[in-house]
Amino acid sequence: MNAYLERFMRSLKSECLNKMIFFGQHSLERALKEYVAHYHFERNHQGLGNQLIDPGEEVGSIAGKVECREHLGGLLKYYYRDAA
């Protein structure tokens, strides 16, 4: 389990914590909550064949406009196709 935690913490630090300035505990908790949601549901994972853990219905469609979902003020981005 330690290797998984080390990988998660490294991703958390490089993709989120090192790029933000926090003004109190509430802002830190909000950023962590949004990052964890992004990490589990939108970010590709190398250990899972670079696939999403639980992809949404829009993932893999070939029709529709490409949309972007942003978190943490645009720091984290997720691109997907809108259902046609």
Automatic annotation (TrEMBL):
<feature type="domain" description="Integrase catalytic">
    <location>
        <begin position="2"/>
        <end position="51"/>
    </location>
</feature>
<dbReference type="Pfam" id="PF13683">
    <property type="entry name" value="rve_3"/>
</dbReference>
<dbReference type="GO" id="GO:0015074">
    <property type="term" value="P:DNA integration"/>
</dbReference>
<dbReference type="InterPro" id="IPR001584">
    <property type="entry name" value="Integrase_cat-core"/>
</dbReference>
<dbReference type="InterPro" id="IPR012337">
    <property type="entry name" value="RNaseH-like_sf"/>
</dbReference>
<protein>
    <recommendedName>
        <fullName>Integrase catalytic domain-containing protein</fullName>
    </recommendedName>
</protein>
